[in-house]
Amino acid sequence: MTAPRDRMTTGAAAAGLDGHDLTARILVVDDLRSSRLLIGSVLMTAGYCDIVYAEDGAEAVLRLREQAFDMVILDIVMPRMDGFEVCRRIRGELQLDIPILIQTGVTEADRRVQAFDAGASDIVSKPINAGELVSRVRLHLDRRRLIRRLEAYRQRMQDELEAAQDMQMSLLASDADVSGIVVPRGASVETFYQPSNTLGGDLWQIFPVDETRFAVFMVDLSGHGVSAAINAFRVHMLAGGLGALRADPSAWMEALNRGLAEILPVEHFAAAFYGVIDPAAGRIDYAAAGWPEPVLLQADGGWQALDGSGLILGCSSAACYEARSLTVAPGDRLFVYSDALCEDFDRPHRSLPTAGVAAAATAALADDSRDFAGAVLDQVFADRGAGARGGFRDDMTFVLVTLEETA
Amino acid sequence: MEFKSSREGDDLVIALAGTLTFDDHENFRAVVTLITDTDTGMVVLDLSALTMIDSAGIGMLLLANDRGAKQGKAMRLRGVTGHVAKVVELSKIEQLIPID
Fold first, then answer.
1. Which of A213, A216, A303, B49 could tie A358 with a disulfide, CB 3.0–4.6 Å?
2. Percentage of residues of chain A with pLDDT beyond 90
């Protein structure tokens, strides 16, 4: 037989006039009939009407298995099974977190510690004082009700956040979709995305431009959490509507900026990179808005930084975004990353300069034993505090584009 | 983040110290209030003692500038160095808030 789950009574209808929950079911355990009846009548007078009695510890455990209680009031010295053992069973095998109020005589001072060790929530002295008993019962039932409400609320928020995170992850294209765009155009792409505290404001997208070119878009909405995530959805929608401008990074970025300037509140903005990659012509055209310098890791072992500067998006609808370009060769790689990779917020002076990012990425590429994402994160975070690698304080996003070697 | 305000001639100078990040939203309200309440036409934010700023911090500077502008007050930044200078340079906010 499985133990019934402890029950929870909630709702305004269940609460008494003074806000206490009088529908609570209370188990009174005492081998003396007179004691049981005394406690029962005190509780009834206080308005509690769902009271169940047990004559000893063994019967108490039986009752607790049969039905759910909100509280137990327990004597210590009883035949068959004493109060300490009942406590241990409630916390142990029955796995219940209901309050347990132990009644003990004043002469049994050393037993108080023993009672708490066994899992008691509180102690009342014998002989029972009606006022004290009722106060303590109310206190523990109220506390339990509040904790349950908070737990339920927290769980609901957690569920909502996870549902939102799933929705956000679904904005990101699958590996197969990405390959379908980039492979026929002479490149391969690896991506990595991990949001901070379950919801984030980073987003990457890959768009086909024409038969030979594709575009890489990365954006980081300011702040994090729910507002950043909602703004990421807005960006995704806006970016999807800019199809006609895909070949022109400057015009594309300016259009996105105008859209964001209309919808983002003044203290919110976005940093972004948009690059059109043309492996056949050996050229990348791009525009940036306050984006950490992407690096081109050249096939010959050298590297080159791209210019990530530009007015952050959403602040001024008149902002211009310069089109920049660079030439690339087969085997070159473009590494674009959000600031979470290079910024060390605990020790800003230790933040990784672009050369450090290039070195970490180069070392990660040389490591054939594992995937690039894991290797580059280990390279970067080897140097930072323990735990920095596990849960990032900011969204961590990066995209690595590899231009196919010519056969 | 901590701040101190003083008068320099006809300007209100607010010196920010420490780090300006996502966790300073509540703190920064007092800075915005100083800016909206002042009777000076020019507000200078001195960032020389600011060691670090993140994207939320940049957002707060933009907010302060916007609230001031709505009341006809001009805002400038000065003492932009180190990590703060790097972030400010990348985000090109001097196009919105002049930097001395």
1. A303
2. 67
pTM: 0.76
Kindly report, residue by residue over A268-297, the tens digit of the pLDDT.
Answer: 899 999 999 999 999 999 999 999 999 999
> Percent of chain B at pLDDT above 90?
81
DSSP A78-136: -SSS-HHHHHHHHHTTS-----EEEEEEGGGHHHHHHHHHHT-SEEEEESPPHHHHHHH
Give pLDDT tens digits for A213-237.
999 999 999 877 788 888 999 999 9
Contact B31, B61 (CB under 8 A): no
Quote the number of domains for chain A: 2
Structural domain boundaries enclosing A107: 12-161
Q: Which residues of B touch A392 (CB under 8 A)?
A: none
Same domain, A233 and A155: no
Q: Which distant-in-sequence residues (6+ apart) come within 8 Å of B82 by Cβ?
A: A348, A349, B51
Q: Is residue A38 part of a domain?
A: yes
Please answer yes or no on whether A309 and B66 come within 8 Å at the CB atom: no
B93 and A315 in contact by Cβ < 8 A?
Answer: yes
Determine the Cα–Cα distance for residues A95 and A89; give it in Å rounded to an integer: 8
A330 part of contact set with chain B, CB < 8 Å: no
Residue A383 confidence (pLDDT) above 70: no
Query: How many residue pairs from chains A and B have C-beta atoms closer than 8 A?
Result: 67
Closest CA to A44 of A124, A102, A130, A126: A130
A149 and A200 part of one domain: no
